[in-house]
Structure to design on (120 residues):
């Protein structure tokens, strides 16, 4: 018989979820400044998030799987990090794609500037 895990994974997920919430609000990601703006974007109510923040460990509200999925997808957090605490906090595959697009744009801008300078 396998031993039963004593760690409350729900508490760990709630902790990472609330860390993500605080980061979103602090950085004003997508213009989100308040929990009342954030809550509908992740399928929650303002009071539910507040209850998560104010609950004692092991008690109160925990984020639902849908809320975890929505915050990861909407704000580019890694689901592996959110659920397991492993890997990078950000979804690096998507982040790498965005960086590649911006690098391509910068290359094109540099070429356009070089052409303009040569014309003068």
């Amino acid at each position: 018989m396998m031993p039963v895990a004593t760690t409350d994974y729900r508490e760990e997920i709630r902790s990472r979820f609330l860390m993500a919430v605080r980061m979103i609000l602090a950085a004003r990601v997508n213009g989100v400044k308040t929990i009342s703006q954030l809550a509908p974007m992740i399928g929650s109510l303002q009071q539910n998030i507040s209850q998560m923040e104010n609950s004692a460990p092991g008690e109160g509200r925990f984020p639902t799987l849908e809320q975890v999925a929505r915050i990861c997808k909407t704000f580019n957090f890694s689901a592996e990090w959110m659920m397991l605490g492993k890997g990078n906090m950000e979804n690096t595959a998507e982040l790498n794609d965005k960086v590649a697009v911006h690098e391509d744009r910068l290359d094109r801008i540099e070429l356009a500037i070089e052409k303009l300078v040569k014309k003068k």
